[in-house]
Specification:
- This protein is about 75% helix and about 0% strand.
- It is mainly α.
- It has one domain.
- α2 (about 25-40) packs across α3 (about 50-60), α2 (about 25-40) packs parallel to α4 (about 60-75) and α3 (about 50-60) packs across α4.
- It binds zinc ion.
- Zinc ion (ZN) binds near residues 26, 29, 60, 62 and 63.
Length: about 80
Amino acid sequence: MKPLTKQQLVGLINSVDATRDQELNCADCQNFAAEFAERQLVGLPLNEALARVEQHLVICPECREELLALKKILETSG
Ligand SMILES: [Zn+2]
């Protein structure tokens, strides 16, 4: 593997800064949304990844809506 260029490193540091504390973005959140909804429905505790989903939902109304819709589907199909 080639070592990173300085530019790549700076980009990496900036993106880490922007996401601080490994906060999820919307795409990541969607990836976990189904598992999150299922666990909530059956009352299982959230694992670390899903705890981050929960954090994201606090700050992101869009994903909150998505999850709500997903839960409705799960509730009616289960
Ligand atoms: Zn989101």
